[in-house]
Amino acid sequence: MKQKQILYEKLIRYILENQERFYRVAYSYTRHQEDALDVVQSAVCKALETYGSIRNEDAVRTWFYKILIHECLAVLKKRKRFLLSDESPEREEAYYEKGYEQDDGLEKELDRLETDVQVIIKLRYFEELSLREISCITGLKLNTVKTKLYRGLKQLKENMQEADL
Amino acid sequence: MSKLEIMKERYDQIAIPEELNARINREIEKSRERQEEKGRVGGNHSFKKVIRGVGAAAAAVCILFIAALNVSPVFAKEAEQFPMIGGLARILTFRSYETEKDDIAVSVEIPTVEMIAEDTGIAVDEINQEILARCNQYAAEALQRAEEYRAAFLETGGTPEEWAEHDIRITVGYEIKQQNNDYLSFIVRGTENWSNAYHESRYYNLDLRTGEMVTLKDMLGDDYEGLANESIREQIAERQKAGEVFFTAEEGGFVGISEDAKFYINERNRPVIVFGKYEIAPGSSGEIAFEIEESSHDSVAEKAETNDADEAAQAPQMYEDNFAVDSKAAMAFAREIQAAAAQKDLEALAELTAFPVYVGLPDVGVVETKEDFLNLGAETVFADELLESVKNADMDHFQPSMAGFPVSDGGVASINFGVTDGVLAINGINY
Asked: What does the pLDDT look like over A22-40, one tens digit per residue?
């Protein structure tokens, strides 16, 4: 029991300390304030409900990100189902909220990548997690993470160069 | 500034709605109530208060945390590439201009190599003149091509408005790859956004010890061709496994590097051979780069890593012993230790540590758990002497021993790490 309480305390502390990061992660997927708030809130709710399942308390961070990313992707999936049946990735731009920044071409290119590649790039460069942590969060093998990251960056570069065609 | 950096910057600037904190607190409150209901068993009424106290402290921590974030290690690494004070030489923008005529935008940034140290006897005038001439020539030719395109467009019935919508842009710029006391490596690129046919990139690799342009032979030795080809073939095979598409030899794919293979020198002073778009893979792959490892030993180590990683899905780099760790990984791990020490971040240091760990403080000795370790306190663990030693550690000459790798300036105070259960971890702290 005591062990569990300590873990619970730790988790709450972690959430409070990192809430802004969570929000940024959520926003980078949803690009929508209200949706991002919802995502963070439900991730927090789920985390607090299931914290007992953390096997290793040192893994709180990767464990929480796993939940958070899952929530983000769930929202995107729901939107997709709601708005169209056709899965053409270009059409996703339609959901873009205006005013993310004046020039959000870069972010659009990022959002156009395969979902798992996007996740990896965001975690690596924006959240600055280690490849090892990303491997835990995504459940992908470390080498797969490396390759996908590498390929994603390549593709991004490529798309950006051609973005104006 | 790279595009990723721009994105990261914007990412960090994503505005945080005020509501966030309230909503999270509400969620925590709800959860706490549920906990209390369930937790009567524990009968701990002060529990709630304790957590509130933690919350307030956390808010204070939060501010510090954000401040630290802005000095991010990933970009700190990139920042190293920017002009350094006191280096031998650096790359500067010699001339930069933007023009627009007939809805053709031209943006040019011409680099120049500047020697900072005076007595090196290295003359860079010739290189600089060549760069300048090439950049100007490219811009002029591209402009002419664009004008021809425009003329043809208008002649065939296009309107000036439609032409303007084409948003034609010509860009000449450069990219610094390595800039230290050994090498200057940079790429000068010219691009036209309406066509790939005339893209041009020139790779400049200057050896600052000799003042000569570096060749692959200089970097890899006489058998540079064999070494490079072997390494590239291995890497292609690996990437193919991961689903990347390369042309076969019949389709015009990789058959071996040419004499004038393009390469740059990366931040680890290794040559990286670059293939242009369409050269060995479909255009969608863009440019493809291969870092060539130092020796066959390294590629063996890498292979071992691959196999192990395949076997143990979540466990990265499993090492058999300290001698199996390549210097690259050792250095990276040592940097993590340095970062934790620099910020006196005990939590971060604990993350890197395998318990039980030896801590050579009076009355301490072996610390059994992370909890106990954290309880020692950052001030105690990060004694001044230790911080000094770690900060000034000689990172370039890591020699493994049975005991592992010491991060120290040669003195007694050190943080040692080595292979524990197959991964790198701190295994002792000496004072």
From this structure: 999 999 988 889 999 999 9
Considering only the beta carbons, identify the residue of A8, A17, A23 that sits closest to B35: A8
Low-confidence ranges of chain B (pLDDT < 70): 1, 38-88, 117-120, 196-197, 295-318, 320, 322-323, 396-403
- B355-372 pLDDT, tens per residue? 888 888 877 778 888 888
Record: contact B191-A107, CB cut-off 8 A: no
Residue A143: list chain B partners with CB under 8 A.
242, 306, 309-310
Name the minimum distance, in Å, from the CA of A134 to any CA of chain B.
Answer: 10
Distance in angstroms (rounded) separating the CA atoms of residues A8 and B28: 11
Q: CA–CA separation, B98 vs A106, rounded Å?
A: 22
Separation of alpha carbons B120 and B115, rounded Å: 8
Query: Global pTM?
Result: 0.39
Preferred mutation among B1, B2, B4, B192 to probe A, highest tally of A CBs within 10 A = B4
Cα–Cα distances in Å, from B401 out to B207, B406, B417, B426, B429? Answer: 33, 9, 10, 14, 16
Interface pTM (ipTM) of the complex? 0.83
